[in-house]
């Protein structure tokens, strides 16, 4: 009877996990399997049945200048959204945590952009970035700075998207950091102040190490978000001018639904999945060992 009881208890966790496993299998692992499978085939509108072609899709992509332009665009977008957003979010979290008055109002104000649906936010920024009537160029003109064409300029368009991404995400990451800050014991700061540590020194030696669990989480989420950006690009620039704002996910969409080249789209999807896996594993490998849960 005891053995049966132990077996029953042992199987319980797997029963609770079963719905999630089934969901992941149907909507994540199965599509990944088919993406990898179709990446080795010629499969398009003119060839409705997949025909195995080995690594031809990958070779064609690696010899395509547009593909490398898209990769560079995605790297620029990722680097200049991830690090500024993380730094700004942490600084804002520290300032909000030290604020005594109107703390909830400030938190809501900073988090509010995250509550706006992406489609609505994109339309707001299209209006704000308009070269003729947009408030951003009006402000730049008032202080004597150049007024870019923003979304119509092949050099400025990617930066417009980066600025919007920082505005949209900084409040969300600030709340994550704020939760981490509130778990740091106050006596550590009091001891540092007694020993004469200034504001910067206090946060460098106490805050930064102890929010490292939050930092690694924010870092991983930021990487994934920066490589799956689509909605704002589709609504604001459609990957243009030229290919100046086309990133990997949007390039996958174009190949799959504009050119009906499923084989190339599948190869791009496989490259994206492998890249994200590599980056996530690298982040955990490099920074995972440096996570601090205490100063001891």
Your description of this structure?
By secondary structure, this protein is mainly alpha-helical. It has two domains: 2-38, no CATH class; 64-290, MetI-like (MetI-like fold, Orthogonal Bundle). 73% of the residues lie in helices and 3% in strands. It is built from 13 helices and two strands; from the N terminus they run αββαααααααααααα. It has helices at residues 2-38, 56-62, 65-98, 103-115, 118-128, 135-142, 157-181, 186-194, 199-210, 212-227, 231-236, 248-258, 262-287, and strands at 41-44, 47-52. Helix 3 (65-98) packs parallel to helix 7. The radius of gyration is 24 Å and the shape is globular.
Averaged pLDDT: 90
Q: Tell me the overall shape.
A: globular
| CATH topology description of the largest domain | MetI-like fold
Helix fraction? over 70%
Kindly report the spatial arrangement of strands forming the biggest sheet: 1-2
Number of DSSP E strands? 2
Number of domains: 2
Q: What is the SS-derived class? A: mainly alpha
Strand percent estimate: under 5%
- Compressed to H and E, one letter per element, the order equals HEEHHHHHHHHHHHH
Helix run count: 13
Low-confidence segments, given as residue ranges, are none
- Shape-level CATH architecture of the largest domain: Orthogonal Bundle
What attributes does this structure have?
296 residues; 13 helices; MetI-like fold; mainly alpha; 2 strands; 2 domains; two-stranded antiparallel ribbon
């Amino acid at each position: 009877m005891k053995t049966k009881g132990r077996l029953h208890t042992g199987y319980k966790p797997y029963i609770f996990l079963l719905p999630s496993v089934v969901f992941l299998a149907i909507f994540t692992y199965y599509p990944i399997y088919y993406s990898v499978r179709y990446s080795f085939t010629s499969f398009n509108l003119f060839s409705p049945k997949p025909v195995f072609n080995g690594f031809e899709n990958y070779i064609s992509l690696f010899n395509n200048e547009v593909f490398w332009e898209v990769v560079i665009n995605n790297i620029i977008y990722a680097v200049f959204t991830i690090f500024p957003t993380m730094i700004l979010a942490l600084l804002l979290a520290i300032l909000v945590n030290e604020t005594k008055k109107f703390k909830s109002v400030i938190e809501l104000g900073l988090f509010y952009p995250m509550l706006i649906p992406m489609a609505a936010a994109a339309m707001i920024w299209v209006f704000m970035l308009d070269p003729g009537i947009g408030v951003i160029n009006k402000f730049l003109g008032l202080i004597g700075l150049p007024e870019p064409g923003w979304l119509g300029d092949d050099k400025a368009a990617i930066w417009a998207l980066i600025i919007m991404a920082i505005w949209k995400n900084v409040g969300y990451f600030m709340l994550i950091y704020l939760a981490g800050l509130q778990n740091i014991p106050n006596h550590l700061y009091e001891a540092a102040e007694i020993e004469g540590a200034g504001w910067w020194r206090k946060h460098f030696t106490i805050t930064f190490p102890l929010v490292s669990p939050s930092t690694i989480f924010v870092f991983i989420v930021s990487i994934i978000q920066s490589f799956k950006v689509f909605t704002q690009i589709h609504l604001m620039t459609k990957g243009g001018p030229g290919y100046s704002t086309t990133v990997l996910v949007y390039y996958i969409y174009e190949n799959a639904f504009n050119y009906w080249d499923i084989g190339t789209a599948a190869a791009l999807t496989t490259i994206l999945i492998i890249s994200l896996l590599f980056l996530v594993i690298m982040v955990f490998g490099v920074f995972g060992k440096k996570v601090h849960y205490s100063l001891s």
